[in-house]
Amino acid sequence: MSVSLTWRAAIVSGALFACLILAWHVATQGSGTAATMDPEYAKLMGATATQGKSAMPGPLEVGEKLWSHIKRPFYDNGPNDKGLGIQLAYSILRVMIGYSLAVFVAVPAGFLIGMSPLMSKALDPYIQVLKPISPLAWMPLALYTIKDSSLSAIFVIFICSLWPTLINTVFGVSQVRKEWLNVAKTLEVGTFRRAFTVILPAAAPTILTGMRISIGIAWLVIVAAEMLVGGTGIGYFVWNEWNNLSIVNVIVAIVAIGVVGMILDLVLARLAKLVTFPE
């Protein structure tokens, strides 16, 4: 039954993809009339005015450009002309550093807050004030204090990844069944051993859910952060290609961002599945 459902879902998904590509192809076919104008002015107006073509590239043109990036993902022709693989590698590295630091801070802090009603009440006002602040609002302060654009982007990733993991860890730890904790107390299990052998396995699915939300937000934010700080990264690539009026490369970058985001989410989803157990 599950295999049949998988195949049916794949067929429906493939049909939707084919319809989307067909609609895209039809929508980008030229329907206007070519105008006669001065050659220099025609260069500025582009193919839309001079040849009646659509200003938006079609799927075939995007596919050819995507294939050219896949064939040469790591070429380096200078600061403003690097392969898509290099740009993605910079972005993934920044996300992994900022995200790892956030998890390293959020999980122990979440355990502390979740296990201690005193710390929960004491820290809750700070969390409620800091949590709604947009990560990008920290960017000017980070650039001013850190004075390094790459480290500032990592700091922004750290901030945006911190809260979902922290809050989910607090929730997971505080929701561990009292019966299990009472049994551990009856057996005179120490605090640290109770945290690792009782609370952590019980709260792990909720913690991984928070980590999964964090990695999604981190990947969203890195694109915007790199547009601001420039230099390298997929966000800078999108902004640079927009300045070059290369809509084809912008669409290719959007596809790459989506695929990488999907892979990151699938990895965390698989990890969450490994620590989830039926009660």
From TrEMBL:
SUPFAM superfamilies recorded: MetI-like
Domain of life of the organism encoding this protein: Bacteria
Spans through the membrane: 6-27, 92-113, 151-171, 191-210, 217-239, 245-268
- Intracellular or extracellular location(s): Cell inner membrane; Cell membrane
**Pfam families per the record?**
BPD_transp_1 (PF00528)
User: In this entry, which stretches build a coiled coil?
Assistant: none
What does the record list as GO biological process?
alkanesulfonate transmembrane transport; monoatomic ion transport
Output the InterPro entries linked to this UniProt entry: MetI-like, MetI-like_sf, NtrB
What keywords appear on the UniProt entry? Answer: Cell inner membrane, Cell membrane, Ion transport, Membrane, Transmembrane, Transmembrane helix, Transport
Topological category with respect to the lipid bilayer: Multi-pass membrane protein
Q: Identify the GO cellular component terms for this protein.
A: plasma membrane
Report the sequence similarity comment from the record: Belongs to the binding-protein-dependent transport system permease family.
What NCBIfam families does the record point to? ntrB
What role is this protein assigned? Probably part of an ABC transporter complex. Probably responsible for the translocation of the substrate across the membrane.
Q: Protein name, please?
A: Nitrate ABC transporter, permease protein
